[in-house]
Amino acid sequence: MNKQRNTMLNFIKGIACIGVVFIHVGFPGKFGLIIAKLCQFAVPIFAMTAGFYALNCTEETIQRRLFKIVRIFVFALIWFIAYAVLSHWLDGNLIEWIKDELSIVNLVKFIVFTKLDFAIPLWYLIGMIETYIVWFFVVKHKREDIFLKFMPIMFLLHFALTTFCETKGMPWSLKMNFVTRVFSWFLLGYYLHKNQNRVLNMVRKMHFIIAALIGILISLSHLVFRIRIDFSCVGVFILSTSLFVIAMKYKDVSISSGVEYLGNYLSLNVYIFHSIIAGIFIIIANRLLGIDTTTGWFPWVNPLLTVFVSIMVAYIINSFKKGNV
């Protein structure tokens, strides 16, 4: 498969970027937990896409993509810092927050666990930066096939670490690292592209659809069936991989041009701005309107309103880039 436009993948990315919003700005109660679990395929889809298009790339291309991700990260970080400064200034604890953030512990969290406490959604960009740094040297020394052999081990570590942390209710950051949460999916996308003919000829469309449904069932097993061990990450793996292979096999199938446009052009800025937008809505509701943001109608409306406004902001930014505004 060449690097031409993949309509189906753009559609899935559009759904995925909305899913990211519902993960970070969730609906209340068990319904919100179920929706968040169903949306866990989102980040793997984006990581696999990066790996898919890394096939046959030179080290210069990888370096260029690395610098692009770094620029995007810095751009997003500036906005998150501005929002954090504003919110902590309003709360009257700005100096204390700055002192807390400038610590060795937070530096370790950033490097090892891809975590910034005031900008949690940016963990994926941090993971992608670390992934591209490693991949640059992999490509430079032509060790792609060797690293593919380690991919199953990475996923086994991912399953074990995630299952343990989620079953024991441990802090989510302990299961976060670029090796198992980003690089493994990146390698899977690379592998699927490298072996696409064998993969696509192996099974029929219905097999992938059934696999996706099985993935959904396993993803929800802990919540719906109250299974003691939370191994929903296995279901996320099955669902994400199935959706990606379907996009590979039916790349020219169009379902919704609007969602495809969202996935192709707007998804990155929706990802960057949605948490900030949701936080601003909470500040306005609490401080200006006196609305209780933890109960009643607000927790149900905020995720939907955040999706809508995030898409509008992303559209305006994209229009400026194209010179249409």
- Based on Cα principal axes, name the global outline: globular
Query: How does the helix and strand content classify structurally?
Result: mainly alpha
What is the assembly state of the chains in this entry? Answer: single chain
Q: Distance N terminus to C terminus?
A: 35 Å
Task: List the keywords.
mainly alpha; 325 residues; 0% strand; 77% helix; 14 helices; single chain
Structure description:
- The protein has 325 residues and is mostly helical.
- It has one domain.
- The protein has 14 helices and no strands.
- The chain is globular, with a radius of gyration of 20 Å.
Summarize the structure.
This protein is an all-alpha fold. It is 77% helix and 0% strand.
Protein topology:
Layout: H1 7-24, H2 29-38, H3 42-52, H4 59-91, H5 94-101, H6 104-112, H7 123-140, H8 144-168, H9 178-194, H10 196-202, H11 205-224, H12 232-249, H13 257-288, H14 298-322
